[in-house]
Amino acid sequence: MTDTTFIAKQHPPRVLGATTALVTGANGGIGVAFVQALLDQGAARVYAAMRDPASLPQQWQGDSRVVPVKLDVTNRADIAEAAARYRDIDLFICNAAVTCIGPVSEKDETTVRHVMEVNYFGPVMLTQALSDALRSRRGGIIYVLSMAAMIPPGPAPVYSASKAACAMYAAGVRSELGKQGVQVTLCFPGYVDTRQSAAFKSRKASPESIANETLRAWTEKQSHVFPDAFSQLVLAEMARDGATMLTDPEGARKELARKHEEQSTMAELAAPEGSAQS
Ligand SMILES: NC(=O)c1ccc[n+]([C@@H]2O[C@H](COP(=O)([O-])OP(=O)(O)OC[C@H]3O[C@@H](n4cnc5c(N)ncnc54)[C@H](OP(=O)(O)O)[C@@H]3O)[C@@H](O)[C@H]2O)c1
Question: Which domains does the chain have, with CATH numbers?
Fold first, then answer.
């Protein structure tokens, strides 16, 4: 047996076939794409968690692999019930969130607290509730964060703050639970074509491409995934000149927007006619 074979056997990639997963916000854009991608890749069962199970997308009605679960991530009783009832979860996809566009001066305390409840405390409480089961099954967690957690706030500073808080929490979870066999992957999408980003005109990735790329990264045990062209551009710019992001955020954002538009146009021109944009 070669060393390489030995390492591969000790650290085989994760597989999605026969997995049981729980996805929050499973009735929304990226959540729907995650559930579908899991099913397409052989998941045995997906707990499709949403505030109102009656909003289960039509495509899964009657599909015994999809179990609609009532779960408002701000509701402690919902969280406790889900954790007690569904102890067979191998993969928890922490996806649900709300956006909050507009200047900080226009956001009252109730609004800011609600954003933190959904985008930060929800993931914290769910992680705490599910971590025993995930540890015992040597399962995994995917946190759907945002590039808004990384770059200085633009049009949605309260949302950015909530995602930055969650990103730091997720990094802590990764560090702790990772040592106990739980594979934690942090996902940082750029603009994605869903209800949440409807107000933005930027080029957007499809929810399907985000879900597939993120699941690939999780199965390959990546700590982080930058699943689209914009998030990869921001990552490259941070590596090249991260200081400017801090000292001149307005200028840095404008430059990122210009480069993203330029790269998207070039990619479109290079793509074969009729091929889909990722
Ligand atoms: N779209 C983007 O450009 C983009 C970019 C970066 C990151 N993201 C992240 O991607 C994730 C998915 O967002 P999306 O783009 O798919 O947006 P979306 O279509 O608006 O979906 C958001 C989902 O979160 C659910 N949700 C909201 N509040 C909830 C609560 N209190 N409890 C449980 N579920 C709740 C929504 O359910 P209801 O239908 O009941 O409201 C919906 O299913 C989020 O974490 C978001 O921050 C999105």
Answer: 3-230 (3.40.50.720)
